[in-house]
Amino acid sequence: MSSSISLSIDDRWLPKSVLCLRDYNLNMFVHDVIAGITVGLVALPLAMAFSIASGLTPQAGIYCAIVTGFLISLLGGSRTQIGGPTGAFVVVIAGIVTVHGIDGLFMCTVMAGIFLVILGVTGMGTAVKFIPRPVVIGFTNGIAVLIASTQLKDFFGLQMDKVPGEFWLRMKAIVADFSTWSPKATILAVGTVVVMLVCRAISNRIPGAIVAMLGATVGAYLFKLPVETIGTRFGGIPSGLPHLAIPHFRADLIHGLLGPAFTVAMLGAIESLMSAVVSDRMSNDRHNPNVELIGQGVANIVSPMFGGLPATGAIARTATSIRSGAKSPVAGIIHALTLLCILLFAAPLASYIPMAALAGILMVVAYNMGEWREIPQLLKLTKTDISVWLVTFTLTVFADLTVAVEAGMILAALLFIARVASTTTVSQVTDDYVEDGRVHILQDKDIPYYATIFRIHGPFLFGATEKAAVITEKMHQLPPIVIIRLRNMTAIDATGVFAIEEVARQLHATGRTLILCGAREQPAQVMHQAEFEEVVGRENICANVQEALQRAETVFEKIEAKAAAGK
Which domains are present in the chain? Predict the structure, then answer.
C-alpha cells in the first residue's frame, strides 16, 4: 500500500515525457516524427517574425524555438504542448530592450524563469485560474492590436528611420511617412495573408505560414523585386549551433526588471496553461499545471544562455502538432531538432525572405490571437465584466501591459467582492417560501437511469470555474442526458458562463443533451444576456429540477424513437 502511495506522489512531479514512455511504441513514434517535422516547419517563420518584431535578430527567435521547444517538451506537464516564442511577449520584449538593452532582456528572462519554477514547485500552477476571463481577453486584444501596429512599416514597405515605441506616436509616424509606401512590398504582404487564409480554408493540416513564406521568397527572388529582406536588414542568419554564453549579470538592473520579469512570468504562465487546456481538449488528455510551469521556467532560464527570447506554450503550433498526429512530447522534441537541422543546413537561404512576408504572417497571427469572437459575447454580459475588459484593453494599448494587468486584476477583485457580497440575503421563512421550494428539492425525486444530475453550490465566478471539469472528466461513463442544478449557485460572471458553455460543447460533441435548471435571479439574468439559450436550446433551460426531469424523459423518448427508426 505504501509503495503505491509513494509512486502516486512521485508521478505528480514527473514530466509527461517520462510518463508517456511507459506505453510508447513504434506507431506512436512514426506519428510524432511526422507531426514534429510539420510543426518545425511552421515554427520557422513565426520564430523569426516574433524575434524581429521584438527588436532582435531573426536567429534569436530560432535559437529560442530550438532550446525552449526541446526543454518544454522534455520537462513539461503536457503531452502535446509545443513551446517557443509567441506573440504575447513581443510588446513586452521590445519595451525591455528599449529601456534596458539586450543584457536587461536576458536577465529579465532568467528572472521570469525563476518565478515560473517557484510557482510550479509551490503548487501555484492552479492559481492562474484566478485571473478572470475579461482580463485575459482584454490584454490579448490589446497585444494583438500592438503587434499589428508594429508590422505596418514592413507590411507597406515604408521608409522610416525609427518606429516609435508608444502606440500613438507609432501611428502618427506611420501616417506621416505613408507617402513612402512600396506597392511591391504591399502586394507581397497581402499575398502572404491571402495564401495563409486559403490554406486554412482548404485544410488545417496545411502549414499556411511556411507555404506563404516560400511563395513570397521565390516570387521576390525570381522577379527581383526591390523589397527589404532578412539579408539586406540583418546580413542573413549565421549557420551552425547556437553558442552557449552566460548572460552578463548586472545587479543595478534587478530592481527595474522586477516588474517586467513578473509580467513575463505571468504572461508565460497564462498562455502556457491556456495552450495546455486546448491541448487537453484536442488530445483527450489532462496536463499537470505545476510540472508544466517548472518545465516552462527551466526553459526560460536556459534560453538566454543561447541568445534566445522568453518562451511559453504556443496554442497555434500545439494545435498544428496535434492535427498532424502528435501522440507524445517526442513530437515537440523532434520539432526542435527539425529547426536545428534547418539552422545547420539551410540558414543561408533565409537571407532571401522578404520582410513584407514576415509582416503578413504576423498580421494573421495578431488576428488569430486576438480572441475577437469573444468580444460580442462579453458585450452581452454585465457592465462590470465589460468594464474590466475595456480597462484592461485600453491600458494595454495606450499605457503599459504590466499596468493593464494589475489594474484589471484589482478592478476584477473589487467586483468579485461586490458580487459575493450581493449574494448574501436575509429573509423570513414563510409558508409560500416552503411551498415554492418543493419543486426544487431532490429528496422525493426519482432520477432515471438515462440521466444524471450535477449541482453547482455557491458563487460560480473566476477562480472556481475549473471545478466544472468534474462533469466531463469521465465523459464515457455519463448517461445520454446530463442535468446541472443551479438552485444553489448564487452568482455567475463571464468566466463562469464560458466554463458552462465549454461543458455544453463537450457534451454535445459526444451526442449528449445538457439541461440546466433552477437558476436564481442573477445567474439567470447573466446567462440570458449571454444568449445561453442558443448554446443548449431554450427548451433545455428549466425552472426547477422537477421540470428538468420531465424534459429529460421527453428527450430520452425521442432518442429511443430515433434509434428504433434507425433499425
Answer: 2-152+234-348 (no CATH), 432-566 (3.30.750.24)
